[in-house]
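Dear colleagues,

As part of the handover before I leave the project, I'm documenting each prediction I ran so the next person doesn't have to rerun anything. This entry is a single chain, and its sequence is reproduced below.
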Amino acid sequence: MRHVILGFLLMGPATLYDLHKQFQGGVSQFYSASLGGLRAALSRLVDDGHAVVEERVENGRLKRIHSITDSGRQEFLVWMLRPIEAANPEVTMLAKVYFLGLLTPDQRVTVVRDLRDRVDTELAGLRELSTSLADLELPEQWAQIAHFQIRTLDYGILAHEAAIRWIDSLLAEVEAQS
């Protein structure tokens, strides 16, 4: 969540409520954040020196406006260019694509190629697992259970194949821009 917040702060200063709206309107299809989660992440970003807070009174109300620091810019860039290590790589992949416009054309190519490599590696692993399970002989009592479990593996393979087609299209686009 911290890196997504930094991406939003790169686009301009924001209050907690502004960020919450940006999450709801921007990344909500693949990432959700509660006000409490956002508050905690913002606090940590400030503590780490990646963001600063300015307090202003507007219309009789105190507003805490967060801005990114040079350290925060660097942290965001390092995250964008680092290979995905997260437990939920699809969410991280989509978050990185969401913020590609904040990078230089050459950096975009680097990020998308990394995403392509990651999905390709995962797909190879799923296909290898599928092949190893195809020859598995099970007692009848387990065969129906295993059948539907393997169908979820089929879904994973199809989803990764679709992701590769999508990433290849995106890669062609960013390569043409660099």
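The helical segments are 2-10, 16-27, 35-47, 70-81, 89-98, 105-134, 140-177. The chain has a mean pLDDT of 92.

All the best with the project,
I.
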